Every structure is written in structure tokens, then in C-alpha cells.
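Open question from group meeting: does this chain pack into something compact, or does most of it stay loose? Before anyone orders reagents, we agreed to write out a predicted structure and look at it together. Recording both the input and the output here so the notebook holds the full record.
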Amino acid sequence: TLIDTREDIATSCNYALATHGYRTLRTEVISRYVGDGSRRLCARAAGLTERDAELDPLVETFVNHYAEHPLIHTAWLPDAQQVLDAMRPLPLALCTNKPRIVTERVLEGLGVRSRFAVVVGGGDTPKPKPSKEPIMLVAERLRLDPHELVMVGDGPQDVLAGKATGCRTISLAGGYSTKAQLRECHPDILLDSIKDVPQIVARWCESTVRARCLPQETGPVSR
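C-alpha cells returned:
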């Protein structure tokens, strides 16, 4: 959603595969496996199930290598930094299936850890997105009702987690998923560019404030 991590993920995944005797894969192939957390990524890449005992050392090697090399090729996506600047007045949270240790090192390396009031990473909840658990944890830590949140993401996992939580959802094309896959999840809005997010969120905030300010009818109104 904010940064392009394909090459660094693929490099660490291939390092783990090679280390444990599995065939390495092209970056384009590994990219199709991204989005559901490191365990599922490694299982798909190695042709294993998530219950296979052989998967544990593979995941450990992947996470350790990625944590040591989190920003070799990673770069900001277009307009992402400007969007973060525009949304400074709002409490921002980062909710990702990327392992927590990697997430923290990426944010620190980019110098943007302080931009986020809350960070929820892979392993912080029993189930990753598309479960609602990570976003519910975000709401709890922000001390907000889940319905007050807006989930912005580029994968079906993001939309489904947001909808399960009851928050509004903005889906961004151009990530690991196709537009057709995103539409099937029925986000509130599907965008081609993240640059439109601040305007949409501001409009939603205004409509929410107006709704709260309207007088509440307690009975029939006589004329």
C-alpha cells in the first residue's frame, strides 16, 4: 500500500528456500504468494502445507534474513509519502501481516515509525488478516469504535478484514492483486491511486460529524 517490498521479500524467501534445499523462484512468482503472512508465503513457495514440520525452520530462516535485510530494494510507492503528510491530523495505524520484527525495522529504516500511533504486525494476533482480529486490536489501542476506522489496503485481505470489523474500506489497485480480485471483495471504494485517499477520508469525516450534530427525534413531530 505504501512501499514496494517485492524484491526484498523475494530475496529473503529464495535465501530460505535455497538454505533448506528447495528450488528458488522468480520474483513474479513469489509476489503472487504475498499478503497472508510469512508462514503461508513460505508454505506456498516450498509446496508445503502450513502443518508440515519442515515449514518451521524455513519460516525462521526467511524472517531472520528479511529482518537483517529489510530495505535493500524497498522503495516508496508514488504519492505515498505525500498522503501520509496530508493525513497527519488523523491518528494513523499500520496493520500488516508482515512479521512484527521486520515491520519495525522497515519503519525505523524509512524514518517514519513516529507517523503511526499504532502498529500491528504479523504475530500480534492469533490470526492475520483477513481475520478481523488485527483491526480490532488497532481499534482497541486507538480507543476508537471499529466503525470509526477506515481500512486502506491493496489486497483482498485488507478489504475482508475491514468489512468483518465494520469499518469503511478503500481498496487500491496496482498491488499484488488484480482489480477483479479486489472488486469481488466489494470495498466501499476502489481507487487507482493512493493520492485520492485524503480527500475521501476527509469527506467521510465531515459527513460523520454532520450526522452527529443533527438533532435526534425522540417522538412524533407536530406541525
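Observations to bring back to the group:
Confidence is low (pLDDT under 50) at residues 216-223.
The longest strand covers residues 93-99.
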